[in-house]
């Protein structure tokens, strides 16, 4: 601990840069995107401490906290603007809603199998069961099951 304090007192830039790199490494390993902005904020604090090395740890921590909040909130607004609340093209299940499917196995007690987008899925239907080879529309996705209607 004394070595960390000695490093901070002599070169606060390096300590903040190491903190930013560690947070960025954890982000790269987890891929959550939640730690990207604290890593960027630590890098900005490192640059600030390079320009003003005698601010003191409490002020630097406050700057880090404020920057982390500001960059995180700004990124949330940016993500909403760039990626509006439409269906996520990477969410295959949501992209199936509204798609046409072909019945491949007969429905018994409202359960059967359909093929949609080249894959076979378990499906549930309410009411009249369509015949094998018939066409249905996907209404919803519930885990590994599709809810379809004739």
Account of the 3D structure:
This protein is of the alpha+beta class and 150 residues long. Helix content is 49%, strand content 23%. A 5-stranded mixed beta barrel has the order 1-2-3-5-4. Helix 1 crosses helix 2 (12-30), helix 2 (12-30) runs antiparallel to helix 3 and helix 3 crosses helix 4 (57-82). The mean pLDDT is 86.
Number of strands: 5
Major sheet size, sense and barrel closure: 5 strands, mixed, barrel
The H/E string reads HHHHHEEEEE
**Tertiary shape:** rod-shaped
Q: What's a quick, concise take on this entry?
A:
The chain is an alpha+beta fold and 150 residues long. The chain is 49% helix and 23% strand. It starts with a helix and ends with a strand.
Which key phrases capture this entry?
5-stranded mixed β-barrel, 5 helices, 23% strand, 150 residues, alpha+beta
Topology of helices and strands:
Layout: H1 2-10, H2 12-30, H3 36-51, H4 57-82, H5 92-95, E1 100-108, E2 111-116, E3 119-125, E4 135-142, E5 145-149
Parallel strand pairs: 3-5
Antiparallel strand pairs: 1-2, 1-4, 2-3, 4-5
Helix pairs in contact: 1-2, 2-3, 3-4
